[in-house]
Amino acid sequence: MSATTVWVAIGLTTAGCYLLKLGGLLVPADTLERPLVRRLAALLPVALLAALTAQQTFSADGALVVDARGAGLAAAALALVLRAPFLVVVAVAVVVTAGVRALGG
């Protein structure tokens, strides 16, 4: 990839971010108070985080992969269901992932 292509991509990304921010400021306040918009605003970050987690856990080089990361994610989900504190959830995920990798997974 050439330096010119990189700078064009950076410029387009900058302009896009600015226009998105400007668009958010131009939305009328009464539109933001509608119940549907409020529900979507509350659920959108959760959906994006779940999608990012799934993509990072189950893909490698553009292919679907099930490996130790999936076991760690499942263990973390179980810890969350059992209402463990956040640091315990992270520790459980790390220990299970490391354990599965040590066993050859």
From TrEMBL:
Name of the molecule in the record: AzlD domain-containing protein
Lineage: superkingdom: Bacteria
Keyword annotations of the record: Membrane, Transmembrane, Transmembrane helix
Higher taxonomy: Bacteria, Bacillati, Actinomycetota, Actinomycetes, Kitasatosporales
Pfam families, sorted: AzlD (PF05437)
Membrane spanning stretches: 6-28, 40-58, 70-100
